[in-house]
Design a protein that fits this description.
The structure holds two protein chains of two kinds. Chain A is an all-alpha fold. Chain A is 21% helix and 0% strand. The two termini of chain A are 18 Å apart. The chains are: A mainly alpha, B mainly alpha.
């Protein structure tokens, strides 16, 4: 089977770098958390500041290629 | 995407998400070939932002049914406005052997495939077939990836496409300018049919026999 020639890692599908375009150079300390356990996570972000799709896509590509720190499941292959 | 959200909304909780939090999704979760990290990560972000089911379905269905990867990453490279970031201090790398300080140039053109699934295993396999299998030029290690290269070209460009689509969808949703067709890209008619009548029963009194929205036949249940 063709797949024998590919390492398992080559079943890569784009990684979670989509979300992990978390290319934060610094993990900044957040001020007193604004989200409570009940409301959870990021909460509403208003007014919305449009995402730069190109910048985000570039970042995603770079992260996938391992340029923003070693990932536990590095995309090697 | 998380990085962009952190930049746009400093001080928000997006600012505190560790880099690489979702890298576990690589290769369909630690290379197990399950849901593609591109699909998973996008759905995670959409979910945390409170996106509706229709919006999330739109994204996942786009992934399932769109011929990918596009040539967008390469065309972006050609603009000359993309300066590699992170550890790619040496700029772009034209070689076939990865250089740690350079960023591999996205491939130009090449085969595309519609995954017919949101699973990494199926997504990759369909692409591999479209690329000509073992004999295909694009399945050679130069593009298909190997243990010596930092990720496959195909998957890197797929990530580019996924993030771009995600950002576009997010912006449209937030601006109230989603296409009128949003929400129509939900479960394929085939999948709906399989779940309701042709393959699985849906008793009025019992739990669902099976669940799913992704295409059943084209990718797996042939």
């Amino acid at each position: 089977m063709a797949m024998n020639k590919l390492s398992r890692r080559q079943f890569l599908g784009g990684a979670a770098v989509v979300a992990g375009a978390a290319a934060l150079p610094i993990i900044s300390s957040v001020a007193p958390a604004t989200a409570t356990p009940a409301t959870g996570f990021p909460g509403l972000l208003t007014p919305w500041v449009a995402i730069d799709a190109t910048a985000a896509a570039r970042r995603g590509y770079e992260i996938y290629k391992g340029k923003w720190g070693a990932a536990p499941t590095a995309q090697s292959g | 995407m998380i990085g962009q959200l952190a930049l746009n909304f400093p001080g928000s909780t997006w600012d505190s998400i560790p880099e690489g939090s979702f890298n576990f999704g690589g290769g369909g979760v630690n290379s197990w070939g399950s849901i593609c990290g591109g699909a998973l990560g996008g759905a995670a972000v959409l979910g945390q932002l409170g996106a509706t089911t229709a919006v999330k379905d739109e994204y996942l269905a786009w992934y399932e049914r769109t011929a990918l990867p596009s040539n967008a990453a390469y065309l972006d490279y050609l603009t000359g406005t993309w300066t590699p970031g992170g550890t790619a201090t040496g700029g772009w790398d034209v070689g076939t052997t990865a250089v740690a300080t350079k960023l591999a140039i996205p491939g130009n053109g090449g085969p595309q495939s519609a995954a017919g699934s949101i699973l990494c295993h199926a997504s990759w396999t369909e692409w591999f077939k479209a690329a000509g299998g073992e004999a295909g030029a694009w399945t050679k290690v130069t593009y298909g990836g190997s243990s010596s290269l930092s990720g496959s070209d195909r998957c890197g460009r797929l990530v580019y496409d996924c993030v771009y689509e995600l950002a576009t969808l997010l912006n449209q949703w937030k601006a109230g300018t989603l296409p009128a067709t949003t929400g129509t890209l939900s479960a394929s008619a085939q999948a709906t049919g399989c779940m309701n009548t042709s393959c699985h029963t849906q008793s009025a009194t019992a739990a669902f026999e099976s669940r799913g929205k992704t295409d059943c036949v084209d990718s797996c249940h042939k």
